[in-house]
Design a protein that fits this description.
CATH superfamily of the largest domain: Zn peptidases
CATH architecture of the largest domain: 3-Layer(aba) Sandwich
Structural class: alpha+beta
Shape: globular
Number of domains: 2
CATH class of the largest domain: Alpha Beta
Strand content: 25-35%
Largest sheet: 16 strands, mixed
CATH topology of the largest domain: Aminopeptidase
Number of strands: 22
Order of helices and strands: EEEHEEEEEHEHHEEHEHHEHEEEEEEEEE
């Protein structure tokens, strides 16, 4: 399956055929090693002085109709000490790039000498949507399952997304904990979703450390909408079914690298590692709110222009009946909808994109859990 592998272990560079690197080389000018046309950048060099190592493996996920192989890179960090395995991925939805930037910075800051255990990281889980800067894959390539995060654990002989998921599941299945990085709209409060009733996943979510944690009911306890939208095929849900604690951080923003969102992601990953005793140190103390219902949405009743109420901000508590904004007919100025909340809770998303189509999400409300 793999089409390339470079590995740095104990002062030696390996690309299938080992290439020696003298210690003096690593202390002078940057090393630029190439094998054929494969350039290995200096910043990828991770020397293991105590048995620790970093590998970056090019993995074929599936094949396109033309025969072109669809590949991505899987990073594996092995620490100097024994410990659990953490799997982290980003960009299942290609426009959600802050997760990818989070993993790049995490790579720079991770100390292999301090690491106990193994981290497997996939910065671009879905190269197709990444290249298209899109949420789903075109119908021409996968008309059955356009959303990769609805098909886990995948099928080796299934549709394109099912094959991609099945290939990555080979890494997921080795893990003791999973973080599936996502990012939402610019108008979303960063939060972490975990499966309600799964205490180990809740502990993982708390360690990641966003102010808002959302528990999501699953299977028989879930709503009809949860089943209708195929949420049982999410990576987090499929992994939890296998007894692997799993979380979905939603870092907010897409299509642009936003410093605050990325730094929340890096700090969260480091604290997850600390909570698993993979890195030394204590998890940061935080004041967190646990709420329920990832599906508490207010939708547009018609198409038109939506003007949110200027005084509202994501993160604030809103009682039932709170006016969120007004939907207008743009040519006649006729008010079409006074959007209001149907429950008490935390306003964690409020669209600022004015042009909406009937059924579009205007806001999301999470009901605070009494704990």
């Amino acid at each position: 399956m793999s089409v390339g592998l470079h590995r740095y272990v104990s002062g030696r560079l390996r690309w299938y055929t080992p290439i020696a690197i003298e210690p003096s080389q690593t202390q002078s000018s940057p090393i630029r090693a190439a094998v054929g046309r494969n350039y290995i950048p200096p910043e990828m060099l991770r020397l293991g002085m105590s048995g620790d190592s970093h590998t970056a493996e090019s993995v074929t996920l599936a094949r396109l109709p033309s025969g072109v192989e669809l590949t991505t890179t899987v990073h594996t960090y092995r620490g100097a000490g024994d410990g659990p395995t953490l799997y982290v991925q980003a960009a299942q939805h290609g426009r959600e790039i802050n997760g990818t930037e989070t993993l790049r910075r995490f790579h720079e800051r991770l100390s292999l000498r301090s690491l106990s255990g193994t981290i497997i990281a996939v910065p671009v889980a879905n190269p197709l949507t990444f290249d298209r800067v899109s949420y789903t894959t075109p119908e021409e390539l996968d008309s059955v399952n356009p959303n990769m995060n609805r098909v886990w654990p995948g099928e080796a002989d299934g549709s394109l997304h099912q094959r991609m998921a099945a290939r990555l599941w080979e890494y997921v299945d080795r893990a003791d904990a999973i973080v599936d990085l996502h990012t939402g709209s610019p108008d979303m409060l960063p939060h972490v979703v975990f499966r309600e009733g799964d205490e180990r996943s809740r502990e993982l979510a708390a360690a990641f450390g966003t102010d808002l944690l959302l528990s999501e009911e699953a299977h028989d306890d879930a709503s009809d909408e949860w089943h209708r939208r195929g949420f049982d095929g999410k990576l987090r849900v499929a992994a939890a079914n296998e007894g692997i604690p799993s979380i979905t951080p939603e870092l907010a923003y897409n299509k642009q690298i936003v410093e605050d969102a990325v730094e929340i992601g890096v700090a969260g990953l480091l604290d997850v590692c600390r909570s698993l005793d993979m890195l030394p140190g204590d998890v940061s103390e935080r004041d967190q709110t646990i709420a329920r219902n990832h599906l508490g949405q207010v939708s547009a009743a018609d198409s038109g222009l939506f003007r949110p109420r200027p005084s509202l901000e994501v993160g604030q508590f809103v009682p039932e009946g709170t006016e969120l904004g007004t939907l207008y007919e743009p040519t006649t100025y006729e008010p079409l909808q006074a959007a209001t909340t149907d429950r008490d809770g935390i306003l964690y998303a409020l669209t600022k994109e004015a042009t909406v189509t009937g059924g579009d999400q205007l806001a999301s409300i999470a009901m605070v859990r009494e704990e």
